[in-house]
Structures are given as C-alpha cells and as structure tokens.
Write a structure and sequence with these properties.
By secondary structure, the chain is an alpha+beta fold. The protein has helices at 8-42, 83-91, 102-105, and strands at residues 51-55, 63-68, 78-81.
Length: 110
C-alpha cells in the first residue's frame, strides 16, 4: 500500500496529477478499442456452414431435423455438418426441413 502525503496542498496536487493520468489512460483505451473495431470490420465475414443438424431437446440430444446452411428456420440448437453426414441422417429417417429442403439440394427425395 502506498503512503499518501498528510497535508492538503500535496494531496490536491496528487489528485490533479492522477486525474490527468486517468484521462490519458481512458483516451488510450478508446483509441485502442476504435482501432480494434476498425480491424474487425475489415475482416471478411465468417462463411456460414453449408449444412446444419438441428438437435433435439433432452438426454443425448438426438438429431431432430437437417437444414441447408442458409435456412431461416434454424435455432440455437444447430451444429455444422458435412454433406455426407446429412445424407446419412436422411437415410436414417431424420426429417428434412420443409422450408430449405436439404434432401432436394442433395438430390435425395423422400
């Protein structure tokens, strides 16, 4: 722990100095955040997966439906998958999304 001066004039000087340092530190932080935000905006957007598996609710979370990667009817229970995994799930009886029709996109009709 640091020892602070006991008299009022030196304490006021110290507070003034620390306010200035805090202002400089906050400005440096704002500049760094702006630089990082600009760099992030220049990165290309992450490409969405081509295929998604929607998991069910409950123990083991079995596959509930399969989707194309650009389907609008997906939720937060989806995980990326390969075309081969989607084909296998479709042949095992996992239903295809009725909106994006991954079975049609893969050339597999029900």
């Amino acid at each position: 722990m640091s020892v602070l001066p006991p008299d009022l004039p030196r304490l006021r000087t110290l507070v003034t100095y620390l306010r200035g340092e805090l202002g400089r530190a906050e400005q440096a932080l704002a500049t760094a955040e702006e630089r990082e935000a600009l760099a992030a905006s220049r990165r290309p957007p992450k490409e969405p997966p081509a295929w998604l598996v929607e998991r069910g609710i409950g123990s083991g979370r079995p596959p509930a439906r399969v989707h194309t990667g650009d389907c609008w009817d997906t939720g937060n229970r989806c995980a990326p998958a390969t075309a081969e995994q989607i084909r296998r799930l479709l042949t095992e009886g996992v239903p295809a999304c009725t909106y994006c029709r991954p079975d049609t996109a893969l050339g597999m009709l029900e």
